[in-house]
Input
Amino acid sequence: MIEIVFAGRSNVGKSTLFSNLFGVRVRSGRKPGTTLKPNFVTYKDLIVTDLPGFGYVSGVGRDFNEKIKDFVVKYIEENSDRIVLAVHVVDGKSFLEIAERWESRGYIPVEVEMFEFLNEVCQRVFLAVNKMDKVDDRDEILDAIAEKLGMIPPWTRWRNVIFPISAKKGKIENLRNAIKERLVEIGRGDLIPVLK
Output
């Protein structure tokens, strides 16, 4: 088996993106934390996994939030040998504000930790910067996100890593094409039909 995983903070649009890319209906909602269990798509020997969102989940305690984050990390660690691609989804509109809030408290933002973790354990990582339809100064925001994640701006140097998208508006072709290219790169072009 080989696997593609989608990971990210709650309410960044992972499930909407997952649905649009793979033509499946998954439960998603306006409130953070709607996806509490992974969603899966299987095709031949490929598993595509929409992991629960980590970070703040409304209406539950800190322990529950930590359990979700621990579950996501453990899942990725235990399956890292078969994960050929991890898609880290972030919210282009709120990423910097949330990251700077955590940094001001002396913490490493969870998105930064997750991106570093994914790059340590997975063969390939894409950064899907979602909700770009709500961002005015696109290049400036993408440059700042790249810098926070340890990539030297401009973000355009990282077009094979950073994919500005709007899942809700269906503007995801750049990411869809990159996933297809990754499948071809690993000699599995036969799996491309999994993408809708």
About this structure: The chain has six helices and six strands. Residues 2-194 form a domain with the Rossmann fold fold (CATH 3.40.50.300). The longest helix spans residues 62-79. The two ends are 21 Å apart (CA to CA).
